[in-house]
Amino acid sequence: MTRKPVLALVGATGAVGGVMIDIMNARRDWPWGEVRLVASPRSAGRKMTVRGEEITVRALAPEVFDGVDIAMFDVPDEVSAEWAPVAAARGAVAVDNSGAFRMDPDVPLVVPEVNPEQIANRPRGIIANPNCTTLSMMAALGALHREHGLRELVVASYQAVSGAGQAAIDRLYAELVAVAGKQVGTRAGDVRELLAAAGLSAEDSPFPAPIALNVVPWAGSAKGDGWTSEELKVRNESRKILGIPDLKVSATCVRVPVVTTHALAVHATFERPVTVAGAREILEAQPTVVLVDDADGGAFPTPADVVGEDPTYVGRIRQALDFPNTLDFFVCGDNLRKGAALNTYEIAEKLAAELAG
Amino acid sequence: MTRKPVLALVGATGAVGGVMIDIMNARRDWPWGEVRLVASPRSAGRKMTVRGEEITVRALAPEVFDGVDIAMFDVPDEVSAEWAPVAAARGAVAVDNSGAFRMDPDVPLVVPEVNPEQIANRPRGIIANPNCTTLSMMAALGALHREHGLRELVVASYQAVSGAGQAAIDRLYAELVAVAGKQVGTRAGDVRELLAAAGLSAEDSPFPAPIALNVVPWAGSAKGDGWTSEELKVRNESRKILGIPDLKVSATCVRVPVVTTHALAVHATFERPVTVAGAREILEAQPTVVLVDDADGGAFPTPADVVGEDPTYVGRIRQALDFPNTLDFFVCGDNLRKGAALNTYEIAEKLAAELAG
């Protein structure tokens, strides 16, 4: 096509939408002829600035997709479920960051540096963006899988609260203020008492337990047999992205009092022998991975040093002592950037390049 | 013997020593004829109250062990290495909570509800208490192992800072005050800047990275090939306590901003089939384990609700979907109680019963 493509961002006024606008403002290449910002009717009319241009947010309606080539959705599952097909019916390719379509066999689930070829395979005109926890490890695992053949994955997460939305961030901040300067002592319920004394009721929290000075082994919703939605997403999405339908996966997902950036302890078993030196070489050659690793512990990634960064950071790479062909390592990735907005935008960029022929 | 045994507590004025005195004060049975409190010369002369009796702390010296039947050591490795043999030479059984003797083949490593028979096997007159991280999961794993035969263990820890001593607790409190009420934004280094602005230099921290609003995948010292001392303790001590010399273990040990109570995500593979219902039954029958678990997520243990409690709390028990004979579960245990002082005291109690014949 000769005209430049038109991009829509649905959910422009949300938390991930805001990160998306930061990403767009900082991008070097700019393939778009027009950007439309779309949100719920109550946010419509707000003005937001993208690359120096003031844009008025439009209310979500079928007409906003007319003439749009690519529509990015950063909205709750039920909004995507209803509106991504509307955008597709009006001729746009919908790139959806919700969970609504990820496991639909007619919707590819894409990480551009892992399975870019899947972008072309979109019979419904919809492409899904993976869950942030899964995404945090995909760049590293995809690169290692290509060389060594991934077979098994045991994962424990240290998940930031921002993955649960603004209310979760606000709650963590409020709880921190309530406990700071206090001794929590050695009695069960100390933290709960401090929160109650500060007027922070348990019922009002997005978390099922205190999140300050605590960790909460529960993320998402109950999916039966004790598993959470988040844990099953790690399993099912990893299988689909990597194209390994029988990949063995066990995940335990735990919230920690960190604002942004998910971390994962990964125990990965491969079909073929793998060494720490070989894994380092593969990961160093992967442009979207940064290796922060040395054997004596002077260097490793932590969430506080990875927040706001685009790449996935990998460290603590160790050969498992008792498991053949197995590596243990630690991954940190900004759950709002690569884990959400950035990956979605990278898919949109790939689509723009495809349209440009 | 007809007289009641004499108990010494070496390290009475330390953090674990304080918890030990709390435990002694709360104990129903009291088999001891005399308690001696021992500490470094600079703490000698201090008066502490045990069960209503004021006791003057004595300076560590060979004579303090004369007439002592059982000497509990809650002191650094190098102090135990020197003084536990002195106590043993003077006729006491030394029960040592340091890392000095744990892997000595002539020193049993004991968890009373798992391998009590090992108490009798003490040619050096020394019995070792396991590392707190290992201990947090031993009551549960020991019970499951007896029935199903443990083969493999993949563990990720969420470790409280008090395992690293009072300086670590103080640092977490100071960092919380420095970040509370501030937005940490979305840039790498935000937390570091807040800490620096509050006068908390990185060099003065017991942690190699910020611990507030962060997690730190490093505990203990470097042991080669990327492994930490803490991770190797989990492997080697689990093997010794459970009596499975070829147990396959991979551990990743991570500090989290929690004051007290370690949590562990455990992926355990057994020789024989195991069901969630069967595991629950076994754990419910284990007096030192409390099950807080329901499949739809309404109940699970968190550190804030387990601190100060004696038992190990287990929840989130799931049958691994892709790994045969494998359970995933989440454990919380107070690292200063069962993880340190309580287990040591329970060993001393068993010895007292043995002496009473």
Q: Can you tell me about this structure?
A:
The structure is a homodimer of 357-residue chains. The first copy, chain A, has helices at 15-26, 77-89, 132-148, 166-179, 190-197, 229-242, 276-284, 303-306, 337-355; strands spanning 6-10, 34-39, 47-50, 53-56, 58-59, 70-73, 93-96, 126-128, 150-158, 248-252, 262-270, 289-291, 312-319, 326-333. The longest helix of chain A is centred in the last third of the chain and has 19 residues, at 337-355. In chain A, a hairpin with a 6-residue loop joins strand 13 (312-319) and strand 14 (326-333). Chain A is an alpha/beta fold and 357 residues long. In chain A, the strands form three sheets. Chain A has a six-stranded parallel sheet, with helices on both faces. A six-stranded mixed sheet of chain A has the order 10-9-11-14-13-12. Chain A has a two-stranded antiparallel ribbon with strand order 3-4. Chain A is built from nine helices and 14 strands. In chain A, helix 1 (15-26) packs across helix 9 and helix 3 (132-148) packs parallel to helix 6 (229-242). Chains A and B meet through strand 9, helix 4, helix 5, strand 10 and strand 11 of A and strand 9, helix 4, helix 5, strand 10 and strand 11 of B.
Percent of sequence in beta strands of chain A: 15-25%
Extract low-pLDDT stretches of chain A: none
The number of distinct helices of chain A, counting runs of at least 4 residues, comes to 9
Strand order of the largest sheet of chain A: 5-2-1-6-7-8
Assembly type of the shown chains? Answer: homodimer
Biggest protein-protein interface? A-B, 84 and 84 residues
Largest sheet of chain A: 6 strands, parallel
In percent, how helical is the residue content of chain A? 25-40%
Give me the Rg of chain A, rounded: 21 Å
Q: Report the end-to-end length of chain A measured between terminal Cα atoms.
A: 7 Å
**DSSP summary, beta strand count of chain A:** 14
Based on secondary structure, the structural category of chain A is alpha/beta
N-to-C order of helices and strands of chain A:
EHEEEEEHEEHEHHHEEHEHEEH
Shape of chain A: globular
Return the average pLDDT of chain A rounded to an integer.
96
Protein name (chains A, B): Aspartate-semialdehyde dehydrogenase
Catalytic activity (chains A, B): L-aspartate 4-semialdehyde + phosphate + NADP(+) = 4-phospho-L-aspartate + NADPH + H(+)
Domain Semialdehyde dehydrogenase NAD-binding (chains A, B): 6-122
Binding site for phosphate (chains A, B): 102
